């Protein structure tokens, strides 16, 4: 298992021209066949290949690996 801690921070939203604060979030991730299966069902291609993946594809895989409950979906936008 992998644990990622996303610290709290202040974020500027260009669409609404406002600032907001995020709470610290701890994500517990587990690489598994279930995660791969969900990803492949969404993208209709093999996950384990030599082809480069887009940021969206990689973030989705992190979503599928997440075991932590009730994660704010916006938190994945803060991963680099």
Structure commentary:
This protein is α+β, with helices and mostly antiparallel strands and 80 residues long. Helix content is 28%, strand content 22%. It has two helices and four strands; from the N terminus they run ββββαα. The strands form two sheets. It has a two-stranded antiparallel ribbon with strand order 1-4. Helix 1 packs across helix 2 (55-65).
Cross-sheet strand order for the largest sheet:
1-4
Low-confidence segments, given as residue ranges, are: none
- The SSE string, one letter per element, is EEEEHH
Shape: globular
Mean pLDDT: 92
Largest sheet: 2 strands, antiparallel
Task: Tell me the total number of β-strands.
Answer: 4
**How much of the polypeptide forms β-strand, as a percent range?**
15-25%
Structural class: alpha+beta
Helical content band: 25-40%
Intertermini distance = 19 Å
**Number of discrete helical segments:** 2
Rg over C-alpha atoms, rounded to the nearest angstrom: 14 Å
List the helices and strands and how they pair.
Layout: E1 2-6, E2 10-13, E3 18-21, E4 25-29, H1 33-43, H2 55-65
Helix pairs in contact: 1-2
Which features characterize this protein?
single chain; 80 residues; alpha+beta; two-stranded antiparallel sheet; 4 strands; globular
Short recap of the structure:
The protein has two helices and four strands; from the N terminus they run ββββαα. It has helices at 33-43, 55-65; strands at residues 2-6, 10-13, 18-21, 25-29.
């Amino acid at each position: 298992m992998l644990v990622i801690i996303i610290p709290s921070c202040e974020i500027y939203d260009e669409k609404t021209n406002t600032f907001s604060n995020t709470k610290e979030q701890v994500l517990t991730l587990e690489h598994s066949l279930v995660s791969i299966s969900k990803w492949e069902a969404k993208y209709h291609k093999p996950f384990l290949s030599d082809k480069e993946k887009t940021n969206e594809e990689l973030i989705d895989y992190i979503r599928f690996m997440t075991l932590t409950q009730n994660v704010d979906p916006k938190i994945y936008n803060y991963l680099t």
